[in-house]
Amino acid sequence: MARRVIASISRKGGVGKTTSAVSLAAALSETGRKVLLIDLDIQASASLSLGVSRENLAPSMADVLLRDQPIRGAIRSTAHPGLDLATASVDLASLEEGGSYRRSDETLLARHLEELGDGYDIVFLDCPPSFTLLSRNAVAACDGYIIPTVPHFLAVEGIRSLVQSVDRLRFRCQQGGQLLGILPTMVDYRTRLTHETLKEIRQQFGRDVFAIAIRMNVRVAEAPSQGKTIYQYDTTSTGAGAYRLAAEELLLRLDELPKAGTPQRHSRYSAGG
């Protein structure tokens, strides 16, 4: 398959965004694909989850985006076969805090990704828990994006608002990814509220919601503290199995994306759409 770029985005933290990015990237690499995970979160959570200590984050994506260094210089291998990593660092905050910016700043990452050529099958972008400049760069650079979400009563409006923000960016830049799907995470089926909220999300967004829901799983929560993917830590866990299924579904959704060169279209959640 041609190289595909996927972004994991959310406007809030604590929804399993980074866990999903790391776990899906690892699951995709287990299918024999060459995968690059790019950490764009100044907290460097994805980098730490893969065993990189804070003192060893450099060179990072800050060198690429702020100092115009070649992106290959920020890429390193990981202990997970087939999965490479470009780390984040706190220096990325300078990009967010720069005040005024040019419209071309939103496509800075896309231009750097062109340097990769066909070296990877999948590039996965883990974004900050916000929709500021780094996340906008990710959306402008990707083919498609996922929205991990915890089923709670504020989820529906938050998802709709985020998709509308993405559509405005895509119109402004005339490039950027389309919605691949909404991934329910940290699902606890023991509570009635979870059942009700997940049902509402599926009713509101239909097939845009992944069929696979990621249940609460202790082993998935423990893996980052060991600097390992769930497949290194406990490949037989229910969490590992859930992310395998989610990765399979993600590949199917990628295949449904419009081909390169197809005119941009807005999502059906756009204002007036």
The H-and-E topology, N to C, reads as EHEHHEEHHEHEHEHHHH
Alpha-carbon Rg, integer: 17 Å
Low-confidence stretches: none
Q: What helical percentage do the residues reach?
A: 25-40%
The largest sheet is:
7 strands, mixed
Tell me the fraction of residues in β-strands, as a range. Answer: 5-15%
Mean pLDDT over the residues: 91
Number of helices: 11
Gross morphology is globular
Instruction: Tell me the distance between the termini.
Output: 32 Å
Strand order of the largest sheet: 3-4-2-5-1-6-7
Overview of this structure, please?
This protein is an alpha/beta fold and 273 residues long. Helix content is 38%, strand content 15%. The protein is built from 11 helices and 7 strands. Strands 3-4-2-5-1-6-7 form a 7-stranded mixed sheet, sandwiched between helices. A hairpin with a 5-residue loop joins β3 and β4.
How would you concisely characterize the structure shown here?
This protein has eleven helices and seven strands. It has 273 residues and is of the alpha/beta class. It has a seven-stranded mixed beta sheet, sandwiched between helices.
Ordered list of secondary-structure elements with their pairings:
Blueprint: E1 4-10, H1 17-29, E2 35-39, H2 45-49, H3 61-67, E3 75-77, E4 83-86, H4 93-96, H5 108-113, E5 122-129, H6 133-141, E6 144-149, H7 155-173, E7 178-184, H8 192-205, H9 218-222, H10 230-233, H11 238-255
Parallel strand pairs: 1-5, 1-6, 2-4, 2-5, 6-7
Antiparallel strand pairs: 3-4
Helix pairs in contact: 1-11
